[in-house]
Amino acid sequence: MKKPVLVVLNSDNPSRIHHLEKVSSYRSRFKIIFVVDAKTSIGSHLPYCDEVLQIGAGNLSAEFALLAGKIDQPAFVLNLSEFMVPLHALFVEHFAVLGLGMDQAEISRDKFKMREFCKSIEIPIPQFIQITSHNLNEVHSFKFPVICKPAMGGGSALVRRFDSAEELENSFPEMSHIAAKMYATDPIGSRAVVQFGEPTFLVEELIGGEVLFKTDFPYTVGEISVESVFDGENVQVIAIHDKPLPSNGPYFEEFIWSTPSRISEQLQLKAKKYVERIHKALGPGALVLHTEFRTMKDDLVILEFGARLGGAAVYRSVLHSTNIDMIDVLIQIGMGEKLDRKPQAPIPTISHALWASQPGQLLEIVDLPEGSSSPAFVEVLMLDAVGDKVQRSPTSTRAHGHVVYQSQLGFDFVETELIKALNSCWLRVDGQMQKPAMSNRI
Predict the structure, then answer these.
(1) Distance CA 317, CA 349 (A)
(2) pTM for this predicted structure
(3) Quick check: bond before 187 cis, omega within 30?
(4) Three-state secondary structure call for residue 20
(5) In 96-136, which residue ranges form alpha helices assigned H by DSSP?
(6) How crowded is the C-beta side of 418, counted as CA atoms within 13 Å?
(7) Cα separations in angstroms, 199 against 194, 265, 285, 392, 397
(8) Is the model's pLDDT at 346 over the cut of 90?
């Protein structure tokens, strides 16, 4: 008897290694076919599946038409990548599998359309406009500082604070040039280039955010992320992470994820209400969302949402803290089963990114907490190896790795043990010994 086909979409991102290992555990149940972009190595995926197919970076519809002829009717299509959301939508529409169609996919990828969508369903948003070089003068209508970000993109790449209209106008040509390179092959982004002749950006008011709990980490801008799933009837929030930022810019790299959330129960209920509203407005194909909010004392302001799984640190944090594997849950929903996995009482868990202080060539990694004697240590994952060029903002889309610590003894103990570990390890970049960024401020 032929096994049902599970198609898995992925792009070139080493942070998905644990996702791949989990998918591989389903090989006895499914014929697993990975579809990857042209930059992604087929060989790196072959150990985890039965077949790997590549899709080119040209005309997505034409490339997909060729690809679809090589694939039997899938039972489900699982997407591991934000950049594969448009391709996922084509699979959904062509094979009539569960997931978002192209209109909904655009909302989850185009930040301008996302803002308009959230406004239409009465979720608090920042004041915003869409800009290109043709209407850049409209930024003078804003009270500065503001945030400018590409309408496409992920991982906080090219997201930047500007303190004056003149500063933004002077920096915009270079930002637009970098965005054109970074998102040239993004199917939704390329639509904007066809329409406007260049990438589009979003300018919005700066939402500060407050950290609403006691912490020894020096991150002062309050933010949360919500991991949720939808089986067509019921929305289930699997986890809420506190993810405060170290400052309000000029760039917005992510450093820390902590669950269960320590914000008030009232705000957590509000987050669940807003996320449920998004799921149901997008429709039954909105199987999974990763949603980010800034936290105020009495309210939340949405930053963005993605119709995708969280990245490595979030995926592992959810698993370690709740014993829920988000891939298990998505395959369960995709196969038409109702949600039956209930999170355990979450264990206090903190994931912390590893960033070099400066970009350059990574020459040595010293005293990572791997094999640590700390009872709170769970895991360390390095995504960049010795010899790799490591990036920082504005062009970085991920950290170099992360560590995870947890304990039933509570957050005070976890923070103490994690801070000790961060202050004891070093990265040698371009000959200079560096503590992981921000840990020297603890």
Answers:
(1) 7
(2) 0.91
(3) no
(4) helix
(5) 102-109, 111-120
(6) 32
(7) 9, 40, 28, 22, 18
(8) yes
